[in-house]
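hey m, so remember when u said the tokens were messed up on ur end? i reran from scratch. heres the input so u can diff it against urs
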Amino acid sequence: MTFDPDTEIQHDGPVTPYRQLAGIIRARIARGDWAPGQRIATEKDLVQEFGLARSTVRRAMAVLAEDGDVYTVPQRGSYVSERPEAQG
């Protein structure tokens, strides 16, 4: 499923909010909002921007990490992997 990088979360849509957020972040990476090796928006920023619970944001980040789009450095944040174009 492809997501628009500027879309809003549809809480009553058929795709769960964490999957929507993962798709939006993936689309923003593909668009070039964050370069490989660059830190992406913080959990706090994503919670505020999308009006989601922190646990939902963490779940989306876990999906992105599992798929190889991002990696997380404890106490530092999440960073774009070197090969984001190979995903999704």
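this time it looks ok to me. The first helix runs from residue 17 to 31. if urs says something different then somethings off w ur setup not the seq
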